[in-house]
Description:
Distance between the termini: 32 Å
Largest sheet: 8 strands, antiparallel, barrel
Helix content: 10-25%
Oligomer: single chain
Radius of gyration: 16 Å
Amino acid sequence: MPYLNSCGVLRYQTVEAYDKFIEEVIGPEAGRQMLRELFGDPPPHRRFSEWPQITRCTHHESSYILAASFVGQTIELRFNPSLKDDGFYSIVTTHPPDRESGYIQHVIIPTENDPATFELNQTFAKRFIVVTASNNPHYTRKVWLIGINTCDEASDNE
């Protein structure tokens, strides 16, 4: 279970893919049943090993600063649940070389039984849904599902 050695996990997808996922999750019972079949109840831990691992998490005042890595990608994300639209993200891909960056549009702190974070509810102490928009118009808006178990607290001097 590699994610246990990290601060947590995150996953991003397009807003359209997320909308389809939510429609299936909170739609008819067949959609909810399909989700239970895919993820189990509670979801299996092995699934998170396929998500980018958060390698650094810092909590300063009310902001979170995350660094994550995945095959061929380095991800940075900074968001503030109190301000909702404060922060940025960047995704650097090594092959082919590319860099995407953008800004935070909205942060949601889901409830314990929120079906949108079904995969994270049983496993991670803190959960967030973050919506971002790219600075480059050829990239799409993204929805990020974030699960955090450990996070360093930064002082005002850092």
